[in-house]
Each structure stands twice: as C-alpha cells, then as structure tokens.
C-alpha cells in the first residue's frame, strides 16, 4: 500500500507529517477555544439572569 | 435581501450555525481525498521523482496563505468604511489560519527545495515576499493581542492589513516581475487556463485546493463565531462589574 518514495522518502514524509500536525493543531485549537468561550458565556449569562 | 444583514451578529450566528457543519464535512472529505489520492495513487514525476507528492500540500497552502490575507483585506475595508464589527472579527479570526497556511507553504517549500535546488532557502523574490507575508501575519496577530480597546485594535490592524496586502500580491506575482529567482511560475494559471501539469497530478491537486479552501472557510466561520461570543462575554463581564 505504501508507495515507494525512493531516496526522497524523508523529504516527502516530513512534509506530510509537519503539515498534518499544523493542520490538526489549528483545527484542535479552534475547536477547544470555541468550546471554552461558549461554556464561559453560558455561565456568565446564567449568573446575570440569576442576579436579575 | 442585502448581504449587510450578515453584519448583524445574531443573523451571522443563525446562518453560520447550519453552514459550519456543511463546510467542515466537505473540507474533511476534499482534503482527505486530495491528499490520499495524491500520496498513494499518483506516479513519480520523471524529473522530480516522488517529491512531486509535496505539491498536494505546498500549492493549496500557499494559495490559501495569500487568499486568507486578501479575505482579511476585504473584511478590513468593510470595517474601515462601514464599521461592521463582524467583519473586523472575521479578519481577526482568519489571521491564525492564514499564518498556519503560510508556515506550511514555507516549510514544505524548504523541504522540497533541498533535493530540487540543493538548498532549503534562497533570497528569491517569491520566497522573500512570502517570508515578509509570514512576518505581517505575526505582526497582525500581535497587534490584536497588544491593544485592549477592540475598536482601536480593529482600526490599527486594518491599516496594517492594507500595507501587508502589497506583499500578499507580490508573493503571488513576484515571479512575473523578477525572473532571476529559483521559484518557477505557476503551473496552474487560473486566468489563462494554460496549465503545464498533467491530469494525473492536476486532478488530486485541484481536489486538495478545493479542500484547503473549504477548510479555510470552515475554520474562519468557527473562529468568527468564537470571537462574537468572546465579545459578548466581555460585554457581560463588564456589565456585571459595573453593577457590583
């Protein structure tokens, strides 16, 4: 299944590894921050409605 | 029906709420198809060998690095002219995504350059303008972080974005202005249609390019929604502090 990359295997594999790491990094970070802010906003809205 | 109604945060949240999963799933499908097809099912190039497989990452990320900045330019102009907060927040949301695309383009370019040119880096017009674009992304993100007043930050980052657009355009067209560089011209000229890449490489490349575009849109929508919520949270916290 794995293609024969010959003498350029290191270059090709490291390109894919570093790119996928960065892509998953920005996706994971964006999802994590979205979840955290959403949760904080829900808590703040609940606190405000309890005060009123 | 006017496009400006999406400048209303409530309308934006309502519309993007159902759009986001669509873009996310399509992006995952296109990126996975393009990269798996390109990596596993395309032949080696007769001159570049297996390094040609780097094209499926390098070209889409470079394309999106430039387009992300141009999207930020449009959003910044809308902010400067019409003062719509959603557009300023969309520009802010796009910057880290554009930065990641720029880093991928620079790193894959360097890794590809070593076996093909015999060097990781050269002060070639396109490479240099891309490095400057990377520095502009860093500066843009740092400026948003450094200024507490959101409207002032939006004003100053918009001006920075206008200046940086020169380098975004240069990085795309540098090879046309200066021909002494190592970097080749585009192999897939969209405007003229005279591409020099064979179908066997072009089809997975096109799929990957569409995938990166969809991924960019999905991430910008997600991050803009986060920024809108963060702004509302800030307002609520300020309100509760004022009450106490």
Number of strands of chain B: 0
Number of strands of chain A: 0
Largest sheet of chain A: none
Task: Sum up the overall morphology of chain A in one term.
Answer: rod-shaped
Query: Over all CA atoms, what is the radius of gyration of chain A?
Result: 22 Å
Based on helices, strands and strand pairing, what is the structural class of chain A?
mainly alpha
What is the N-to-C order of secondary-structure elements of chain A (H for helix, E for strand)? H
- What distance lies between the first and last C-alpha atoms of chain B, to the nearest angstrom? 43 Å
Overall radius of gyration of chain B: 20 Å
Q: Could you tell me which chain pair has the largest interface and how many residues each side has?
A: A-B, 35 and 39 residues
Number of helices of chain A: 1
Molecular shape of chain B: globular
Bin the helical content of chain B: over 70%
Largest sheet of chain B at a glance?
none
Helix/strand-derived category of chain B reads: mainly alpha
Key words describing this protein structure:
heterodimer; A: 52 residues; mainly alpha; 1 helix; 0% strand; B: 244 residues
Could you characterize the architecture of this molecule?
The complex is a heterodimer of chains A (52) and B (244). Chain A is mainly α and 52 residues long. Chain A has one helix and no strands. Chain A has one helix at residues 9-51. The model of chain A has no long low-confidence stretch (mean pLDDT 94). With 244 residues, chain B is mainly α. Chain B has a domain at 57-181 and 208-239. Chain B has six helices and no strands. In chain B, helix 1 (9-40) packs antiparallel against helix 6 (199-243) and helix 3 packs antiparallel against helix 6 (199-243). Chain A binds chain B through residues 1-9, 11-12, 14-16, 18-19, 22-23, 25-27, 29-31, 33-34, 37-38, 40-41, 44-45, 47-48, 51, and chain B through 31, 35, 39-40, 44, 49-51, 53-54, 57-58, 61, 96-97, 100, 103-104, 107-108, 111-112, 114-115, 215, 219, 222-223, 225-226, 229-230, 232-233, 236-237, 239-240, 243.
